[in-house]
Amino acid sequence: MKVFIDGQEGTTGLQLEGRLKSREDIQLLEIPSSLRKDVEAKQTLIKEADVVFLCLPDESAKESAKMADASTVVIDASTAHRTNPDWAYGLPELSIEHRRKIANGKRIAVPGCHACGFSAMMYPLMSLGILSTDVRINCTSLTGYSGGGKQLIKTYETERTLQDKYHAPRAYALGLTHKHLPEMMAVNGLIYPPHFYPVVGDIYQGMLVTIHLWQEQFDKKLTPGKLQELYQKYYQEQEAYYVRVLPPDTEAGFLNPMACNGTNYLDISVFGHEEQMVVTARLDNLGKGASGAAVQCMNIALGFDEKKGL
To answer: Based on the domain organization, do 70 and 157 belong to the same domain?
Structure first.
């Protein structure tokens, strides 16, 4: 199986290359650095490949997607196609229908890392009618700086003093127009955009996405324990291997955002009391939040073992 990573020198592209280069069932097609922006050279490789991963800015991803034959599996890690109904949404654990579309589709959009955690928590509540489509949701998300790409990584990994501002968590996207909001709404059928507050921390990778819930938002009385049972049953029925519903797991009262690093797992836990609850999704922003999800989707689309290379 011939695979081409368009954008192989970016953060996600490098992660994908690392996951695929040792697989005996994959032949990686590579473009010389000097030809990365040569449209003809790129198109030749896209035409030759059975699978094309797009690890590019949105507009470039759209252009490259147009170059691929209809029979080629195109897996896009950008924001460009995540709300396009003609593309499968690459979070197979959400439902049997999501998994079927990935298995039968040739165009697959990998979820954004924040949106991946958000939808893993919200979709069951929406599909089971626990929350209504007009619910107003608050969501916070702490992420490692690798999610910002090469430039942000460079910023954080240059020499710093103990007083350097980059050691402190920093909120961003304070205009409340984060690029993941459209998919967070579309995937979960929300009328109103979530009140979304992302924070980048002084860690390379790992993330905690949290939704804030109040008892009056539910259509029936729920406790944290009952809500956790609901998630467990839902994901058992979906035969979701990579989404795990776990009891609250803290270290001296603190929740570690890096516990899923290096894996493709997404762990859901429920905290709180009868009146107020928070649900957290813990994942690796470079794993289930990016390259891991992309490889999982490729495995499903090609009929391989879903866990291969993960």
So the answer is: no
- Same domain, residue pair 157 and 195: yes
Q: Which helix (H) or strand (E) segment is 267 a member of?
A: strand 266-272
Q: Is the pTM of this model over 0.85?
A: yes
Assign 250 a pLDDT band (cuts: 50, 70, 90).
confident
Helix runs in 128-260, H state only: 149-157, 181-188, 224-237
Catalytic residue flag (residue 113): yes
pLDDT tens digit sequence for 176-230: 999 999 999 999 999 999 999 999 999 999 999 999 999 999 988 999 999 999 9
Whether 310 is covered by a domain: the verdict is: no
3-class state of residue 160 by DSSP = coil
For residue 195, the SS3 value is strand
DSSP state of 35: G
Confidence grade of residue 2 (pLDDT, cut at 50, 70, 90)? very high
278 located within any domain = yes
Residue pair 83/183 in contact by the 8 Å Cβ criterion: yes
User: Cβ atoms within 10 A of the Cβ of 218, count?
Assistant: 17
Q: State the catalytic residue, choosing from 113, 116, 139, 260.
A: 113
Q: Are residues 29 and 168 in the same domain?
A: no
Looking at the fold, whether 94 and 120 belong to one and the same domain comes out as no
Whether 269 contacts 279, CB under 8 Å: yes
Are 86 and 142 within one domain?
A: no
Q: Pseudo-torsion of CA 241, 243, 245, 251, nearest 10°? A: 110
Q: Tell me which residue range forms the domain holding 226.
A: 113-285
